[in-house]
Design brief:
This protein is an all-alpha fold. 70% of the residues lie in helices and 0% in strands.
């Protein structure tokens, strides 16, 4: 029998996989993709999301697309995370 939180976990994992695909061409994320993938494979979903946010925040001259920002915001909401990542990225 599946764990009752499995559907939620699967949804958040899918959001992060979509985020990874949307960031495929981002130069700073490309250099951090391996870390993101390791976190994702270890089911450390919050760490995976924060590694993507950190990579994007290191590159203030390469503003993420609206699609990427929406995916980051959706992942934060799905995990009920309250930090300033999205606001900081929007400020670019």
């Amino acid at each position: 029998m599946a764990h009752p939180l499995q559907p939620h976990f699967d949804r958040v994992s899918a959001l992060l996989i979509e985020l990874r695909a949307a960031l495929e061409d981002h130069p700073v994320f490309r250099s951090r993709r391996e870390v993101f993938d390791e976190y994702l494979e270890a089911n450390e979903l919050e760490l995976a999301l924060h590694s993507a946010c950190d990579a994007l925040l290191e590159s203030p001259y390469d503003k993420p697309s609206a699609e990427v920002l929406k995916k980051i915001e959706d992942a934060h909401k799905a995990m009920d995370l309250r930090d300033d990542c999205v606001e900081r990225l929007l400020a670019f």
